[in-house]
């Protein structure tokens, strides 16, 4: 038991990061100024020996892993003092971490009524980091799979290119494992075991809330790419992820900040600067809206019986493998709405087992997705309000949907107050904006 007040903690220490090549286990140790060491373990199964000449790259990646994973523990008390043991970080890495912690904890800070601006300071060493080298990595993609539609669109596009792909999941979710098995691609399951002391801190009254989990998974895969000899890490974050949920006191709060273009840019720069010049990190779907991704997924019916985007299925203390869609969370609502313009009603009801657009009790929930009636976009990985409004407007023109409670309400009470020119679906389905997608892959994914 931890018998201390988490809010009395004043210092957070990054103690050590060790990787054992014999077991494939990375042990990451943290400490507050009071209480026990907090050790997280990440297991890379059947890890081969690290190639000679890649030791420096692995050390740099392991340090970055240690520092980014630490956000899970730092948030328990958000103390003003940060101490890094051993080799320090140079100014560019410290600046990257400060931006990640500030914006990646934006939702957490908002919900805990904290202002972290000016509070997070990573001490920077005077010496610059050793520059990255060309490692001669194998031409192979690490493709993270979360069980939902986005990563499956990416997997199938990469398959069409005929590239060598390894589908990877962080954690042991059977739902994700089933989807990877359905893809027929080789799979990799990386284990992540958080310190049990973190949960004791939570029970003792620690600050708790959302963390930038995509940033954590990204840097886990950076280490994995070096261990398993892969030259690319291909995420599936769409352009909608860069859109903030709300702006408060001049600060943009974005639930998906670590899925945003900005984080992608930061991590790409740090990889190329200090880890490996031939390790590519990018999002295949960056130029697409959520609706554009959904349009493409609607053609992949082989996954309709196995995929799930419902976040209530994926819990830190265990998944719920028997129920793929809860029908109550914003992710369920958005995916249902997003698929409706592209699937027959019969197929969509077959996936969800119920018609979410004919439930009058969900009116306020859908207002959040639409960003109307003083509601803001919910803190979930959902598309922009304009996407939901365009999808709903499209359904008002479809005989099979227009009489359903939520659609009918939109047509009668919401649409008349909106600019009809902004409700068009087609413009949202086109690829646009900055991205780092290789040309051959972009040619497949950006085609309408």
From TrEMBL:
Molecular function via GO: racemase and epimerase activity, acting on amino acids and derivatives
Residues in the signal sequence: none
Record domain MurL C-terminal: where: 307-420
Catalytic reaction equation(s): UDP-N-acetyl-alpha-D-muramoyl-L-alanyl-L-glutamate + ATP + H2O = UDP-N-acetyl-alpha-D-muramoyl-L-alanyl-D-glutamate + AMP + diphosphate + H(+)
Domain MurL N-terminal as annotated: residue spans: 5-283
General function of this protein: Cell wall formation. Catalyzes epimerization of the terminal L-glutamate in UDP-N-acetyl-alpha-D-muramoyl-L-alanyl-L-glutamate.
Similarity remark: Belongs to the MurL family.
HAMAP family for this protein: MurL (MF_02209)
Protein name: UDP-N-acetyl-alpha-D-muramoyl-L-alanyl-L-glutamate epimerase
Native species: Ahniella affigens
């Amino acid at each position: 038991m931890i018998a201390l007040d988490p809010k009395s903690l004043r210092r957070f220490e990054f103690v050590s990061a060790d990787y054992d090549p014999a077991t494939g286990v990375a042990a990451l140790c943290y400490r507050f100024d009071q209480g026990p060491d907090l050790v997280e373990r990440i297991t890379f199964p059947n890890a081969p020996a690290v190639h000679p000449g890649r030791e420096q790259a692995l050390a740099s990646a392991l340090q970055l892993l240690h520092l980014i994973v630490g956000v899970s523990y730092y948030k328990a008390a958000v103390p003003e003092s940060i101490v890094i043991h051993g080799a320090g970080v140079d100014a560019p890495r410290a600046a990257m971490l400060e931006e990640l912690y500030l914006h990646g904890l934006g939702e957490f800070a908002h919900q805990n009524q904290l202002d972290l601006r000016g509070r997070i300071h990573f001490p920077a060493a005077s010496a610059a980091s050793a520059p990255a080298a060309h490692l001669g990595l194998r031409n192979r993609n690490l493709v993270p799979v979360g069980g939902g539609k986005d990563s499956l669109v990416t997997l199938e596009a990469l398959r069409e290119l005929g590239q060598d792909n390894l589908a990877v999941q962080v954690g042991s979710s059977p739902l994700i494992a089933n989807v990877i098995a359905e893809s027929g691609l080789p799979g990799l399951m990386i284990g992540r075991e958080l310190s049990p002391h973190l949960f004791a801190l939570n029970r003792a009254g620690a600050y708790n809330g959302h963390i930038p989990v995509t940033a954590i998974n990204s840097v886990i895969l950076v280490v994995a790419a070096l261990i398993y000899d892969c030259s690319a890490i291909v995420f599936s974050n769409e352009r909608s992820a860069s859109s903030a949920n709300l702006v408060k006191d001049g600060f943009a709060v974005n639930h998906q900040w670590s899925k945003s273009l900005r984080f992608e840019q930061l991590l790409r720069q740090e990889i190329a600067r200090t880890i490996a010049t031939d390790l590519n990190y990018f999002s295949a779907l960056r130029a697409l809206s959520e609706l554009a991704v959904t349009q493409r997924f609607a053609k992949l019916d082989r996954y309709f019986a196995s995929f799930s985007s419902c976040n209530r299925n994926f819990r830190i203390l265990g998944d719920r493998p028997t129920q793929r869609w809860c029908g109550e969370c914003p992710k369920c609502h958005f995916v249902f709405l997003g698929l409706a313009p592209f699937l027959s009603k019969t197929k969509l009801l077959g996936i969800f087992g119920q018609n979410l657009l004919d439930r009058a009790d969900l009116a306020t929930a859908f207002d959040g997705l639409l960003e109307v009636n003083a509601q803001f976009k919910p803190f979930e990985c959902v598309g922009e309000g304009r996407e939901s409004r365009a999808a709903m407007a499209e359904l008002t023109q479809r005989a099979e949907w227009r009489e359903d409670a939520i659609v009918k309400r939109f047509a009668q009470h919401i649409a008349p107050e909106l600019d009809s020119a902004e409700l068009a679906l087609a413009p949202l389905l086109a690829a646009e904006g900055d991205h780092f997608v290789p040309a051959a892959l972009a040619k497949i994914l950006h085609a309408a």
